[in-house]
Design goal:
Helix content: 25-40%
Low-confidence stretches: none
Bound molecules: adenosine-5'-diphosphate, magnesium ion
Structural class: alpha/beta
Largest sheet: 6 strands, mixed
CATH topology: Rossmann fold
Number of helices: 6
CATH superfamily: P-loop containing nucleotide triphosphate hydrolases
Order of helices and strands: EEEHEEHEHHHEHEEE
Shape: globular
Strand order of the largest sheet: 6-7-8-3-9-10
Oligomer: single chain
Radius of gyration: 17 Å
Length: about 240
């Protein structure tokens, strides 16, 4: 089957200016994301991974360059188009979960599901992530791994075309992290969402068919892995 490009980035740069200081967080990046792929963006701390992911997800705009998605150039999109893009196409998962603490797990997921026309039913997605029994707990009553599963349910409930995960296992122990990666892999396979996992952990790249390696704000290598490992077989 031909590989279909979901997003194309051309010569994307992002410079942060703070007074006299300029940080070139992302330099002249060209990159395709393919429909339905699971891709890992790998690089050390400070290499520009989050900057890149935030631009992919429409949380931030490039200083220069183009980001094409579904016939639109997001780098020139107005606020309304960008909001629509984030609402309908993007699910975001963060290292520290970013759940709303005074809403239950179910309510956190509902909030996101209600943004889109055809969400996955909340009960179904909660049971998919293994939290069918704990839906009415508040985040503080859940373990880190459970909170991350709620965050994944929240992102996946929108059935987004892009599921973006910024260091999703960064705050978790090895076994819990592995379970989170299995869940992301399952969502990729079952729902066909393009899943992008950002990590500094080299071991995790073994689960991806494509690995985008970053260093000092640049994509330095895109490698193809003909036989990705199931997350259950990854160790770190
Ligand atoms: P990574 O996610 O790989 O750790 P980041 O994308 O967060 O890297 O950061 C890349 C570089 O850009 C770092 O030097 C960081 O300090 C800088 N940076 C990131 N976000 C901002 C910001 N909002 N303002 C200023 N500098 C930033
Ligand atoms: Mg980061």
């Amino acid at each position: 089957m031909a590989e279909e490009v979901l997003m194309r980035m051309e010569n994307v740069s992002r410079t942060f200016v703070m007074g006299e200081i300029r940080v070139e967080a992302l330099k002249d990046t060209c990159l395709d994301l393919l429909k339905g792929e699971l891709v890992v963006i790998l690089g050390p701390s400070g290499s520009g991974k989050s900057t890149l992911l935030n631009i992919i997800g429409g949380l931030d705009l490039p200083s220069s360059g183009d980001v094409f998605f579904g016939g639109k150039n997001l780098s020139h999109a107005d606020d309304e188009d960008l909001t629509d893009f984030r609402r309908n196409e993007i699910g975001f998962v963060f290292q520290f979960y970013n759940l709303i603490s005074d809403l239950t797990a179910r309510e956190n997921v509902e909030l996101a599901a209600n943004l889109v026309e055809r969400p996955i039913p909340v009960e179904q997605i909660m049971s998919d992530v293994g939290l069918g029994e704990r839906m009415d707990h508040f985040p503080s009553q859940l373990s880190g791994g459970e909170q991350q599963r709620v965050a994944i349910a929240r992102a996946a409930a929108k059935n987004p075309r892009l599921l973006l995960c910024d260091e999703p296992t960064g705050a978790l122990d090895f076994q819990t992290g592995q379970m989170i990666l299995s869940l992301l892999s399952r969502i990729n396979q079952e729902r066909g969402s393009t899943v992008v996992i950002v990590t500094h952990n080299t071991a995790i790249s073994a689960m991806a068919r494509r690995v985008i390696r970053m260093s000092s704000g640049r994509v330095v290598e895109v490698s193809y892995n003909p036989s990705p490992l199931p997350p259950e077989r990854i160790e770190w």
